[in-house]
Amino acid sequence: MKFNSEDRMREVVGKVKGYIADEEGWKLARKSRTINVWCKPSEEFAGHVFKGIGVIDVSPETCFKYCDPKPDGKRVKWDKAIKELEVIEYLKKDDPEMYVLRTMTHNAAYGLISPRDFVDVVVNMNNEEFVGTLAHNFETEHTAPTADFVRGTNYYCGILCYRIPGELNKTKIYYIAQSDIGGLVPRSLVESTLPAAVMDFYTNIKRQIDEDGCNELSF
Fold first, then answer.
1. 63 in helix, strand or coil?
2. Which pLDDT value is given to residue 42?
3. pTM, 2 dp
């Protein structure tokens, strides 16, 4: 079947926004004073989908500059989980915001989880509601697994920087994570590390924005 980029974009956006709107069945996996990480069983695989929620004192546009997964962006500077980002191909002519991305990670859990790579179709969006990046697994003939990484699978996921009415310099960040990391790692180990990984996302983006001299964040 021919790949339809518009259909895939609508599918990914609908699924990720659905997780954000959904309030049923979530359990609190981890929390701090201003950040909550929730989880519930995934409908896509035999694991969980995680939803992080936090507010920061920068505009959604500024926030997104640090979330954008393009290889030449700020994300690789602060996201300690990411080793390298590679754009495989752009899916729409003259549109740099929809593309196939390969994400390579460092090892995790003190070396118990070896480096992974993930190949996804990525959609970046900017509208009246949010600025965000959304993704889902997407394999092509140009993305065969390599010996250096264990191939994982990202199901519907994303980072959405929501606008807060009346607060131009505040952003409510939703981080949706839903990954099957592959390999032979016990699922209990994987599931135990993911809430902390979502928390680290908020901590590390805060630290990098602070170092860059942007507005102070309210974590």
1. helix
2. 96
3. 0.91
All residues at 6 or more sequence positions from 182 whose CB lies less than 8 Å from its CB, including other chains: 116, 150, 151, 152, 153
Q: Which of 81, 147, 79 is nearest to 113 (CA)?
A: 81
* Burial class of residue 81, CB neighbours in 10 A (0-12, 13-18, 19+): middle
Q: How many Cα atoms sit within 13 Å of 175 on the Cβ side?
A: 24
Q: What contacts 78, CB < 8 A, 6 or more positions away?
A: 66, 204, 205, 207, 208
Buried b (16+ CB within 10 A) or exposed e, 139-172: eeeebeeeeebbbbbbbbbbbbbbbeeeeeebbb
49-85 pLDDT, tens digit per residue, is 999 999 998 999 999 999 999 999 999 999 989 999 9
CA 178 – CA 48 distance, rounded (Å): 7
